[in-house]
Specification:
5-stranded antiparallel beta sheet; 211 residues; 15% strand; alpha+beta; disordered C terminus
Length: 211
């Protein structure tokens, strides 16, 4: 599809101090923590946030038919975003459980910053106001909608190096798919009341938000 855009370097201009501060706040650690600061700098070096997005879902698209009826008349911009395979492998390389937790939170914060940059870029391209995200598995969007998003982007997902496994989970870790929409829409991660992900022992991909 000609309307699909590929974006790289989504964290350009984001400092390791900013990432460290965000991660420390979530982890309830001192704002100036040497370990977090070092890991944040390392995480930014290995992360390569990139995304696919489109400001148009054609009326004939099967993706449109898969959406809940109340969202079919809303302007939605589908996207897939990843921190990159090297970042995922970096987070998994730590043997210490605490360091694994810190590294994961740092990548969550990097992904969050990349999503903010993607939302700004999409809003500018579409000529809209501020955008926020709706993600499959939250609100009224079933997790299985991930498969429809991957079908929508087709072989272009190879540009990102991402795949969907049989459980509709994106690989590598620290990747997310969903829709950007006008922030007046009251669904999605920013207003998520679903707690089953936490109850199952998992983590919200964007744990800097209150889910």
């Amino acid at each position: 599809m000609d309307d699909i855009v590929f974006l790289e370097n989504l964290c350009t201009g984001i400092s390791s101090d900013t990432i460290a501060s965000k991660a420390a706040a979530v982890l309830r650690m001192p704002p100036v923590d040497h370990k977090i600061a070092m890991l944040a700098a390392s995480g930014l070096r290995v992360a390569a946030p990139a995304a696919l997005y489109s400001v148009l879902i054609p009326p004939s698209s099967e993706l449109l038919n898969r959406l809940p009826e109340e969202l079919r008349t809303v302007s939605l911009f589908p996207f897939i975003l990843t921190a990159g395979r090297e970042a995922s492998e970096w987070a998994a390389s730590f043997n210490d459980i605490a360091e694994q937790l810190y590294a994961g939170e740092i990548l969550n914060c990097i992904l969050s910053s990349a999503l903010d940059a993607l939302a700004c870029s999409s809003a500018s391209a579409a000529g809209t106001g501020p955008l926020s995200e709706l993600c499959p598995g939250t609100g009224t969007l079933p997790l299985s909608l991930q498969a429809d998003l991957f079908a929508f982007f087709g072989p272009r997902t190879g540009d990102l190096g991402v795949r969907l496994n049989s459980s509709h989970v994106i690989e590598p870790a620290f990747s997310v798919a969903g829709f950007l929409c006008n922030e007046t829409i009251t669904q999605g991660c920013r207003n998520c009341s679903v707690r089953s992900c936490m109850e199952a022992g998992g983590r919200c991909w964007r744990s800097t938000l209150e889910c």
